[in-house]
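Good morning N.,

You mentioned wanting to compare the apo and holo forms, so I went ahead and generated the holo version with flavin-adenine dinucleotide. This is what I fed in:
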Amino acid sequence: MTSAEVLLVGGGPAGSSCAWTLRQAGIDVLLLDRARFPRDKVCAGWITPAVVEALDLDVNDYRRTRTFQPITAFRTGVMGRDLVDTAYGSAVSFGILRREFDHYLLERSRARLALDVHVNRIERTAAGWLVNGEYAAPLLVGAAGHFCPVARWLNGPRRDEAVIAAKEVEFVLSPAQASVCRVSADAPEIYFCPDLAGYGWCFRKEQVLNVGIGRQDRHGLSEHLERFVAGLQHAGRLPHDLPNAWRGHAYLLYDSSPRAMVAENMLLIGDAAGLAYSQSGEGIRPAVESGLLAAQAILAVIRDHRSDALANYHTTMQARFGRRAGPHDRAMSGNGLLPRAAVSGVARRLLGTRWFSRHVVLDRWFLHRHEAPITKRVVP
Ligand SMILES: Cc1cc2nc3c(=O)[nH]c(=O)nc-3n(C[C@H](O)[C@H](O)[C@H](O)COP(=O)(O)OP(=O)(O)OC[C@H]3O[C@@H](n4cnc5c(N)ncnc54)[C@H](O)[C@@H]3O)c2cc1C
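and this is what came out, ligand included:
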């Protein structure tokens, strides 16, 4: 049996941020992940400055041997219509490769690691939790993404979840592909679907190109993707020989996720709790911030013996991300990337205007510039 003060399942941005903060406070953390790192994660790899700040990322150290693409502009609009160019003049986001980013954060956390361990058995014991019959701790944190086994233990198998389904390809452009690709590295392109049930993107990070689409209705996803890519190739923006290496994944949006995040001596963070921002689908910032807030709650339990601290995590998360809709609200408002009220011809026209693109789509929905970052300083 291997024991620790805290068991963390999942070593993505949520798990590593939580482990990093707990380790700095001297807590014995054991982190389990089914992968060996470095490992890939289906993701466009776009992060906002709030993530850099929350992680206290040493950018110069990070970018020395890794991809770190500053973004100073965006091209946004509706598929098949003219796009709007919005320039900021300085970096408002960055592009990273998840294979590098997650590995860097996990190593930096200094948690004890048990990798190549697929968690599939969770049991309550008198002393706390026993995982796979082998790993024990009084406190358990679920950070294993959308299909997290700890989330399933807490919430049961959910069939009523309004899942966002996404598909993408990420690859290094050959010199020939780079010469015909018109997607600029400092200006990602965001294309809303005409029915506003999702959006596609083209995102170049130095010599790496990421193209993908995310939508509320997973059944039509492949057809929407094919139409989206064919349209861009026809318009001469993308090379015609994209590799046939499309990968899919799913996640929940915060507003419509029905998942409980807390039980006795158990917390969920990141995608396991269903935290992605509702309009943009950005999940790395909520994953990191929830990891920091969970660490704060855990430290209050371990150091200050405040038995109510884990229950307070729920309140803290609501204060940070807003009150979640109940089942009735979800039925009334619809689930998805855009509020139902916005799904109209008016909204499509607005998405083609400069003012709306900059101040609403980008500043509010995608960059969340109105929300100050949570930093490690919130953790005592
Ligand atoms: C196509 C797509 C594009 C996206 N693009 C962006 C983007 O550009 N920017 C952004 O901010 N967000 C994006 N997101 C969302 C973002 O990827 C997630 O919100 C983020 O990765 C969540 O981090 P996490 O740590 O909670 O989980 P994850 O990153 O999913 O990490 C979970 C970890 O748990 C491990 N694990 C899983 N199951 C088990 C198990 N049974 N036992 C042990 N370990 C297990 C996995 O190996 C993994 O290492 C995108 C999502 C998709 C699907």
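Confidence is low (pLDDT under 50) at residues 330-336.

Happy to go through it together on a call whenever suits you.

Best,
F.
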